[in-house]
Write a structure and sequence with these properties.
Blueprint: H1 2-40, H2 43-69, H3 76-91, H4 94-100, H5 106-110, H6 115-137, H7 142-162, H8 164-167, E1 173-174, H9 182-201, H10 203-213, H11 215-220, H12 225-251, E2 253-254, H13 261-274, H14 279-301, E3 303-305, E4 308-310, H15 316-331, H16 346-349
Antiparallel strand pairs: 1-2, 3-4
Length: 356
């Protein structure tokens, strides 16, 4: 019996060490992608790589809450909206803010922060909003919580669309510094992956997944579901806020509709395709859907095959991505990775060079 217990303990430690390799493998894979694109690709591919890595930051942030809690949130695009505008308020030149955003407080109107502190501030403000709103929303469970998050998204969109002196309303805010390139986006994607892995391995992450698997048993064991959900919700919102700031400084223009239903659908599609049950699934889902979106966009513009030019009808991108989601939900409900993580075998991590 003692030998069995000792063997189980060794196996558990080996698996824990193997799990630690997951974020390293994911980050290394993304870094290799960036290096290959910059070495052999053109400017359009470099832009696609940067945009994909921004989505990794958003979706991995989204996964911290949805993947660990099992609660589907429709409101995380609102945190991206908050982050984008906070960064714009802090980094735009005062003269531009005087023209576009006449209702800002004086200290904000005069502020001209460097981009990194502004991105961090965007995440912190988004996390603060999540802590305040989540205190009420997360007392609900199941579909009620999901509907409440959608109501929150609609509220933020309407407030931002009508708070014209501060947000510019439905008009676009222009003039943001376009500093986000593939390496900047990779840095934030790596930070999001690292934090998601740390949270997933923490006591709070383990407790939250226990409530996801069996809420009654977890509650009977003394796990405070509400507290762990609120923590995950807040951490998740931080990276979605940063992702929103990156979106704004990648394009150079923001408006409220850019952070509404289309972004919500895209984030959900990427989680569903990759698999909501694992961090690796979130990253793989982003890569798969981003590649499909790029191919469909190019197909809508027209593809020349021999003497003929074939073009998909406008709107085919959203339609086909939606069809792919339905197909995956029917044929592979757990996503491409089915809840598995990409990791080295335990034997390799333990230094034995092969699995036991």
């Amino acid at each position: 019996m003692d030998d069995l217990v000792m063997e189980a303990g060794v196996d558990h430690r080996a698996r824990a060490r193997a799990a630690l390799t997951t974020p390293l493998i994911l980050i290394a894979g993304l870094a290799l992608l960036v290096a290959l694109v910059l070495a052999f690709g053109d400017r359009s591919l470099a832009r696609m790589a940067a945009e994909t890595l921004i989505r990794v930051t958003l979706v991995v942030g989204f996964w911290v809450f949805a993947g660990n809690s099992g609660v589907i949130s429709f409101g995380h695009a609102a945190f991206a909206c908050v982050g984008a505008y906070v960064s714009a308020w802090l980094t735009l030149k005062p003269a531009m803010k005087g023209l576009l955003l006449t209702g800002l407080p004086d200290w904000v109107a005069r502020a001209e922060w460097p981009v990194l502190p502004a991105a961090l501030a965007a995440g912190v403000v988004a996390a603060g909003v999540a802590a305040l709103t989540g205190a009420a929303i997360l007392r609900l469970s199941g579909i009620a919580a999901s509907i409440a998050t959608f109501a929150f998204l609609a509220m933020v969109n309407q407030i931002w669309a009508n708070w014209t002196p501060v947000t510019g309303g439905t008009s676009s805010v222009v003039g943001l510094a376009r500093y986000v390139d593939p390496w900047v986006a990779l840095g934030w994607a790596a930070a999001a992956i690292g934090m998601a892995a740390v949270y997933g391995a923490s006591a709070s992450g383990l407790a939250l997944r226990a409530t996801r698997e069996d809420e009654v048993a977890a509650t009977a064991s003394g796990i405070d579901r509400y507290r762990h959900r609120l923590l995950a919700y807040t951490v998740s919102a931080f990276f979605c806020g940063v992702g929103g700031a990156l979106m704004g400084h990648f394009i150079g223009v923001i408006n409220p509709d850019a952070f509404y239903l289309s972004l919500t659908f895209m984030m959900l599609a990427m989680l569903v395709v990759g698999g909501i049950g694992s961090l690796s699934g979130a990253v793989v889902g982003v890569l798969a859907v981003s590649a499909a979106m790029e191919l469909l966009v190019r197909a809508e513009k027209g593809v020349t095959i021999g003497a003929a030019q074939i073009a998909l009808p406008p709107g085919s991108q959203e339609t086909l991505i939606g069809a792919a989601m339905i197909a995956i939900l029917i044929l592979r409900p757990q996503g491409l990775l089915a809840g598995r993580e990409i990791m080295l075998p335990p034997g390799w991590v333990a230094g034995r060079g092969k699995t036991d």
